[in-house]
Amino acid sequence: GAGVSQSPRYKVAKRGQDVALRCDPISGHVSLFWYQQALGQGPEFLTYFQNEAQLDKSGLPSDRFFAERPEGSVSTLKIQRTQQEDSAVYLCASSRSQNNEQFFGPGTRLTVL
Amino acid sequence: KNEVEQSPQNLTAQEGEFITINCSYSVGISALHWLQQHPGGGIVSLFMLSSGKKKHGRLIATINIQEKHSSLHITASHPRDSAVYICAVTKGGGSEKLVFGKGTKLTVNP
Predict the structure, then answer these.
(1) Which residues of A touch B21 (CB under 8 A)?
(2) Nearest by CB to A42, which of B44, B95, B103?
(3) pLDDT digits (tens, 9 = 90+) for A67-98
(4) What is the nearest CA distance from A65 to chain B, expressed in angstroms?
(5) What share of chain B is helix, strand, coil (3-state, %, to 5)?
(6) In chain B, which residues touch A (CB < 8 A)?
(7) Which residue, of A12, A48, A63, B104, has the fewest CB within 10 Å?
(8) Per-residue pLDDT tens for A46-66?
């Protein structure tokens, strides 16, 4: 593919529902990042994969958040029992290898009612 | 205090003006990034730099490692430059994650 893709682009969930957000990185990119961007704020780091290994999950706000990248390509961010404060844009980025430019997807806008 | 601070928070300019956005950081870094985000759109990487100066078209980015400061300049600004410009750093030490500033919202009027 030409770039990083994310799906769905928009998601509305009722409080308490589980959601799954998908990221397809650029083919061959080793590193994959998830960021959360609240309205009017800069993005904040959630978690990072190098191939299938989750090397840093220090930014995940609670144990309701879980991310995986089982085959080192596509990644899924899962949020269980969504809360209103989870409403944000979830951005995925990938890079070719360590210390390289990160390429961002269009984001998934999650609204929890 | 945030590790990455940007100024100004909002900036309005007339078409053709020279624009400067500033970024200061308080941690050791391996690289500094300037990113552009259009309303409702994704983020595009403009520059990644660890020293000196880079130029791409009408955009120039500089960094002073000793002063922990970077600037993004836009020459001959145009309304299509209207966007949020975000400064971010990679802290290094094996960590690749980006630490972001809050962004500068630029509006260029015709």
Answers:
(1) none
(2) B103
(3) 999 999 999 999 999 999 999 999 999 999 87
(4) 18
(5) 5, 65, 35
(6) 30-31, 33, 35, 41-45, 48, 86, 88, 90, 95-103
(7) A63
(8) 999 999 999 999 999 999 999
